[in-house]
Amino acid sequence: MQIAVIGAGHWGINLVRIYRQLGVLSKVCDFSAERLAQIAAQFPGLEIAGSIDSVLSDPAIDAVVIATPAETHYSIARQALLAGKDVYVEKPITLHCDEAEMLTNMAERLGRILMVGHLLEHHPAIIRLQELVEQGELGRLEYIYSNRLNLGKVRREENALWSFAPHDISVILLLLKSMPIQVTATGGTYLQPNIADVTVSTMLFDRGVRAHLFVSWLHPYKEQKLVVVGERRMAVFDDVRTNCRFTTRRSTWSTGNS
Fold first, then answer.
1. How far apart are CA 15 and CA 36, in angstroms?
2. Are residues 151 and 106 in the same domain?
3. Of 33, 64, 104, 165, whose CB neighbour count within 10 A is largest?
4. Range of the domain at 99
């Protein structure tokens, strides 16, 4: 498989590096001539392009990786699917639900792969957490909460919920294996008009299971923590600490020895 990365900015450059190491990166496309020059210097011999058309019209390219600003995801992904390419798009897939549904339907109709970059689903600690849940180590899940907080990076295209929360939402849905029956979200706008910097969301699932999500790019310190509370044990995934990233402890209300 030969892959092209479209968008080599703050996050896209990581994708360029990884796909280059895997030996499947054929081309990099970016709208910035300065950035393309940096990539050419950092990755000698790698083909670069300043036009999406030159990527999508290349028959040697099997799939594209889209790491452009979120507001461009729908347009570029749609063009790529229509060009017969498989698509990996960074989260959020789009900024409007109807656009996400249209891309999904288009991929199914054309027989193409459409994948969103929910990278936490592939994190070793999350894989282990999923195993513990499926093996019944935590007991019946009762409550999940997550904090994803930082000072920056402030976005202009999407708010903090769309930028930060997809990571934790994807993991919560993975663990509960169901969709919520009720969702509420509130937010505060402080730095720029109509772009929430802080949001608090609640998802209600069957049997009364709840999940709370607190995200903010206006926070004095960095925190990325997911807490899963079961009837028997609790698990904590701390993605900031370099040691002891994943721990469990017995729920205080459980029966038996503590």
1. 14
2. no
3. 64
4. 3-117
